[in-house]
Design brief:
It comes from Sinorhizobium americanum. By secondary structure, the protein is an alpha/beta fold. It has helices at 3-14, 44-53, 84-92, 125-128, 147-160, 171-183, 188-191, 207-223; strands spanning 19-24, 30-34, 38-39, 57-61, 64-71, 76-80, 99-103, 119-121, 138-142, 164-167, 194-195, 232-233. The strands form 3 sheets. It has a 6-stranded parallel sheet with strand order 8-7-6-9-10-11, sandwiched between helices. A 4-stranded antiparallel sheet has the order 2-1-5-4, sandwiched between helices. The protein has a two-stranded parallel ribbon with strand order 3-12.
Length: 234
């Protein structure tokens, strides 16, 4: 691998941004692009598919072919609330390949005994997130049912463009949440990105079943995110 390509990949890794390396199989020439950078329009469909799937791809273009390697930041799951659903997610998320962090200022809930081998921060989200910023490869799930804890990270996730923003609560609860977010200046378009009630509708009843529904919805959002947000063609 050329030094310039390696440097670009290291730059993308440090910034938690996606990158692709496009190899022309005929000439052996390789070009690296970080998400957001311009790339040839003829490569748009192939690169977009690769960024969405996270898998390398061989594509035929006219009389030549290109091989696209993709490098995605490890997906993260930030859960607001150290509740029973979070305990189940703490067992499931690492199996699905997600780095997971739980944030909850309520020290009676946020205890190491209840959450082992998972990063647990017993502090307010507004104190944590400015130094631990969210990004487009982060999913946020707010599950405390407490607006004083949930509302700030939901706004922060929408502003950061997190690929998934979910919030626990009934439709009535979410309607109240929507009004609070509107009053805080959040646009209707952004509010429309919130998955609420949280999780795929599988009739989940127990905390473990809800956790399965939430994780499935997060994976769906990751694999179906808009590829137009990952890069721009010239």
């Amino acid at each position: 691998m050329q030094l310039s390509t390696l440097e670009k990949l290291n730059e993308a890794r440090s910034a938690r941004r996606a990158a692709v390396v496009v190899n022309d199989t005929s000439s052996g020439r390789a070009q690296a692009f970080i998400e957001g950078e311009a790339f040839p329009a003829e490569w748009e469909a192939a690169i977009s598919e690769t960024l969405r799937s996270g898998r390398p791809k061989l594509s035929a273009l006219d009389e030549r072919s290109i091989f696209i390697n993709v490098y995605l930041p490890p997906p993260r799951l930030v859960v607001i609330g150290a509740v029973h659903i979070s305990q189940a997610l703490a067992r499931l998320a690492p199996v699905a390949g997600f780095d997971m962090t739980i944030i909850d200022p309520r020290t009676a809930f946020a205890t190491a005994e209840r959450f082992q081998a998972i990063e647990l921060l017993a502090d307010w989200p507004e104190d944590v997130l400015p130094t631990r910023p969210l990004d487009r490869y982060t999913a946020l799930a707010a599950v405390t049912h407490d607006p004083k804890i949930d509302d700030y990270p939901i706004r922060a996730a929408l502003e950061a463009g997190c690929f998934y923003v979910g919030a626990l609560g009934s439709r009535k609860t979410h309607a109240s949440r929507v009004e609070r977010l509107r009053s805080a200046g959040v646009s209707q378009e952004a509010i429309g990105r919130i998955r609420a009630p949280i999780g795929i509708d599988i009739g989940a009843a127990s905390p473990a079943e809800i956790a399965v529904a939430v994780l499935a919805e997060i994976i769906e959002a990751l694999r179906h995110r808009d590829p137009a947000e990952q890069g721009h063609a010239t």
